[in-house]
Design goal:
Strand content: 15-25%
Shape: globular
Structural class: alpha+beta
Helix content: 25-40%
Number of helices: 7
Order of helices and strands: EHHEHHEHHEH
Oligomer: single chain
């Protein structure tokens, strides 16, 4: 069942490079309503838990290290067809393959440092949003 919410993180590379405002503007301009937002930093344990689905993959350690290396911006977004529309807005994981005008084409530097995370399903959007935001923080 499709929902109208998705989850995103502006990753440490994009935060460090000063792209928070531009990325949030792109999100707003694409018709998303921000219903939860915070600047925070994942601990190693947080990153391991959040990305547990990838724990058997060879890049897991590098991913955890990167995602806990600096602040992130976590957000829950609302819009009709939120998950699919946001995946289109962010572009392909590899910025070299991302469509022109997408967040990753504009702000990512590599496959590993690809500026933003976007939920890949309605189910994961709910899980990921709840990981970062208590119920009273979701509007």
């Amino acid at each position: 069942m499709a929902t109208n919410r998705t989850f995103t993180m502006i990753k440490p590379d994009a935060v460090k490079n000063g792209h928070i405002g531009n990325i949030l503007a792109m999100i707003n301009n694409a018709g998303f309503k921000i219903v939860s937002l915070k600047l925070t930093q994942l601990t190693v344990a947080d990153a391991q838990a959040f990305y547990a689905v990838h724990s058997a993959r060879p890049f897991f350690g590098e991913l955890v290290e990167f995602m806990s290396s600096g602040p992130i911006v976590a957000a829950i977004l609302e819009k009709d067809n939120a998950v699919n529309d946001f995946r289109t807005l962010i572009g392909a994981t590899n910025p070299a393959e991302a469509a022109e005008g997408t967040i990753r084409k504009l702000y990512a530097t590599s496959i590993g440092e690809n500026a933003v995370h976007g939920s890949d399903s309605d189910e994961n959007a709910a899980i990921e949003g709840a990981f970062h935001f208590a119920g009273r923080e979701q509007f």
